[in-house]
Amino acid sequence: METTGIVRRQTAERRRDALGRLIAERDVWVSTAHPDHGPHQVPLWFLWDGRAVWMCTSATSVTARNVRKEPRVRLALPDTFDVVLLQGEAECFLDQEVNEDAAEAFADKFGWDPRVEEESFVYVRLIPRTVRAWRGEPELRGRVIMRDGVWLDKATPRSCPSELSPRN
């Protein structure tokens, strides 16, 4: 692994960089598992609302079925040098029962509103319990930047004022 030139970031800087990527990026790898059939991984579009990740998938997809049976999920942003991993329990919301603010923000970001499709979709929300972030081997130590839903840098509040809360 090439580590030349990597300057080890402090927790607050890792958090800032991870949050910046969560706001700016559009794709995330979603890893779910069925209790009997094992792991499943797919890329999905996502929206970060300041507190949670919102994704959307067909109501009949393997991802939706897995989340309903086993809600523990891991998300990974698609960059193997600048790693951001999120873990937590996901929850599914039918497209007609999802939080209006989340659905509108998702539609605004992607120019696609699953609520108007003929096929039924679910929004999958994950509020992270653990977040890890690192760039190369020099940052492996200290890579956990959120534990038990609490950011470890203590520099800023846990949530942001633009949080969206579910109707349910």
TrEMBL record:
Keyword Oxidoreductase assigned: yes
Organism for this UniProt entry: Streptomyces javensis
The UniProt record lists the keyword Chloroplast: no
Regions annotated as coiled coil: none
Occurrences of domain Pyridoxamine 5'-phosphate oxidase N-terminal (ranges): 28-134
A UniProt-annotated Pfam family: PNPOx_N
UniProt-listed PANTHER family: HEME OXYGENASE HI_0854-RELATED
Name of the protein in its database record: Pyridoxamine 5'-phosphate oxidase N-terminal domain-containing protein
Domain of life assignment: Bacteria
Keywords carried by this UniProt record: Oxidoreductase
